Amino acid sequence: MTKYIVEGGNPLFGEVHISGAKNAAVAIIPAALMVNGVCRIENIPQISDVTLLLSILQDMGAKIRFLNKNTVEIDCSSAHNARVPYDSARRCRASYYLIGALLGRFGLADVALPGGCDFGGTRPIDQHLKGFNALGAQVEVQSGFINARAGETGRLKGANIFLDKVSVGATINIMLAAALAEGSTVIENVAKEPHIVDVANFLNSMGANIRGAGTDIIKIRGVEQLHGGTYSIIPDQIEAGTYMAAVAACGGQIKVCNIIPKHMDCITAKLLEMGVEVEEIEDNLLVRRIGPLMKTNIKTMPYPGFPTDMQPQLAAALCLAHGTSIITESVWSSRFRYTDEFKRMGAQIQVDGNLAIIEGVEHLSGAQIEACDLRAGAAMIIAALAAYGTSEITGVQYIERGYESVIEKFRKLGGNITSVEVPDEDEALSAG
Ligand code: EPZ
User: Fold this and answer.
1) Closest residue (by CA) to atom 18 of ligand 1?
2) N or C end of the chain: which has fewer CB within 10 A?
3) Contact status, residue 202 vs residue 175, Cβ threshold 8 Å
4) Protein fold of 2-19+235-428
5) Is 194 in the pocket of ligand 1 (CB under 6 A)?
């Protein structure tokens, strides 16, 4: 088992280079399955979700070749359809994109229901299934698998789809399936996150015809097939926001490099309210906190609102702000499990349904804490770096699903964090 040991209490200084966006990469890899030819994907983050999805493609006959650590060539010309077993799907929520991709390419998909981060509530995919149905697929959920079949021709048919709920996953999944469908598809009430635009741009650069990504309506004219090409993934908005939140909590000054400043506006706005200085210099942000942190209120919303995936990291900083802050989580009904760990560090937080009320304290104290999901894990690193004393963070496999070289990047900023291997508790017990 891996643990992170953190000695907190020091400000952060230096530069951090932001990797490619996880939530774009985990959709673009399944999308590569639809391409007849070689996709060269640049700026791919080195994270465990990417490794897992590439290995699923490899099991389907894809040829995978890394040109360097962040550039991969995927050739799915001779890939074949295969069931995606529970053991793979449970480890990565984005495995659900394989349904759209397999349906588009082969007209059938058998994929185990996805796992991924557990926020303590349900994570429905009814809107994905509604979209596949509208495109003419027969979809059944049986023995933990989603079995989807296109009609007799083996090809989906374009349709008009109105989503009942703004969903990142459903928007991308339907877009994937419709890219190779017969005729035109219009999807309304779609999500507008930067990674949705990125996936549409990827597909278009391989020959798809998708318009309107980034607005409320996406229009897709189905094409017969997609061809190979080269594509570079956008920088990760949430990874950048995580390092910005770390400076808010710890103090100091860092340069967050290789970002798209426009994508950061919803996060920057909150940090400015909290007394953090943020200056845009080309595709970098200079982030500085020398004075005290101020309280603020946050309500999570689909893009361009404040992202739910930044909520725990900002909460870590708000634990140390002057005054009372209120966080309203309106995307996931319960994403506050991490607050129990913060309380063990001396934070004053009260959770009531989808509200967290945070009373700022003078300082946090190091403690043994456990990450319960990816962003909660990132928030725990931030809290531990800001706290006085030593913290031990377990559950770090969640963090490594989505943050490339997190230890090295924080260490370069002066954070005292190390990764150590310790025997599993079960192993230790049986050894003892
Ligand atoms: C994506 O999850 C992200 N994951 C999540 O990031 C992120 O929290 C979420 O979008 C919201 O921004 C990936 O991109 C792989 P949704 P997704 O469908 O697609 C409801 C991270 O930390 N809903 O936009 O699964 C749902 O319950 C991860 O990087 C339905 O009701 O989220 C939620 O309330 C965690 N029916 C809301 O919509 C559906 O069919 C938004 O979910 C689908 C969703």
Assistant:
1) 167
2) C
3) no
4) UDP-n-acetylglucosamine1-carboxyvinyl-transferase; Chain (3.65.10)
5) no
Question: To test the ligand 1 pocket, which listed residue (29, 331, 338, 374) has its Cβ within 8 A of the most ligand atoms?
Answer: 331
Q: Is 48 left (phi over 0), alpha (psi -120 to 50) or beta?
A: alpha
Q: Whose structure tokens read 């309203």?
A: 328
Residues in contact with 338: Cβ distance below 8 Å, sequence separation at least 6, in sequence order? 312, 315, 371, 372, 373, 376, 379, 380
pTM of the model: 0.96
- What is the residue extent of each domain of the chain? 2-19+235-428, 22-232
Closest residue by CA, ligand 1 atom 13: 23
Q: Tokens 């900023």 identify what position? A: 413
Cβ–Cβ contacts within 10 Å for residue 366, how many?
20
Q: Confirm or reject: Cβ of 313 under 6 Å from ligand 1.
A: no
Mutation to probe ligand 1, out of 92, 122, 123 (largest number of atoms < 8 A from CB): 123
pLDDT mean for each 10 residues of the chain (432 residues): 96 98 98 97 97 96 97 96 87 92 95 72 86 97 92 93 97 98 98 98 98 98 97 98 98 98 97 98 96 97 98 98 97 92 98 97 97 96 98 96 97 98 64 34
